[in-house]
Amino acid sequence: MSNVFYDAGTARADKVNDLFARIARRYDLINDLQSFGLHRSWKRRVVDLAAVRTDARALDVCCGTGDIAAALAQRGAVTTGLDFSPQMLAVAAERQKKIPNSKFPIPNFIQGDAQQLPFPDNSFDIVTVGYGLRNLTSWECGLDEMHRVARLGARLIVLDFGKPANVLWRAVYFTHLRLSVPLIGLLFCGNASAYAYILESLKHYPAQLAVAEKMRALKLKNVRVINLLGGAMAINYGEKPAL
Q: Distances in Å between the alpha carbon of 216 and those of 121, 125, 231?
């Protein structure tokens, strides 16, 4: 796969956007297949950690098809989902129309850049991102923006692919990403590169330990790394200190 995916600037952003435009309609199906359905429980863990209070304001960055945003809204948060891909947002909006009437408002989905969030400082009580930080041109900039728009006392939560500490398990896991996952993309998207990018993007992403270090550099408190599947996936958690 071309390394344009990992170049700085607009070339990489355009490449990422084109990729997700192609796979938007089958994104959830392929996630179910390549994670054996486990991604749903990991996202529920994110929402549990968010500790939603009724009428809390929540932002889900790189929201994709909107499952985390929808779950936050169903817990009572006034939720915004933001994504760079209009195709993903269209799927998210369609999914919400199929949900039976709820006592809570549905999420507001908007198009935007995770590295230049269109919100004032101190806007949200909860800021989440699921499988999006790794795809940004600068994941550090993305985390900076999440921190900027978070209110004092807000929870910041990142779910993404990780790098297992165990060398043997890492080798098995990377082999799965190199061989099995692109095959799933080929069978169900007609394009192996649609999911071959995961391994390449992970090679360029320092994963859970670096995210935790960055959270500490931002002066977040109660910083935690929750390893899943032996570190193959991870949740990073931190809180913006209240004065």
A: 19, 19, 20
Amino acid identity for residue 138 in this structure: S
Residue-wise pLDDT for 190-235, tens only, equals 666 666 677 777 878 889 999 999 999 999 999 999 999 999 999 9
Rounded-to-integer distance, Cα 163 and Cα 174, Å? 9
Taking only the tens place, the pLDDT of each residue in 77-100 is 999 999 998 988 999 988 887 776
H/E element, 144 = helix 139-149
Cross-strand partners of 233: 161, 228
Number of domains in the chain: 1
What predicted TM-score, i.e. pTM, was given to this entire model? 0.87
Residue 207 structural domain: 3-239
Nearest CA to 227 among 170, 177, 144, 176? 170
Please report, for the domain that includes residue 230, its CATH number: 3.40.50.150
Q: DSSP letter at 149?
A: H
Tell which residue, 227, 114, 229, has the closest CA to residue 237: 227
- What does DSSP say about strands 108-111 and 124-130: parallel, antiparallel, or unpaired? unpaired
User: Whole-angstrom Cα distance, residue 71 to residue 148?
Assistant: 23
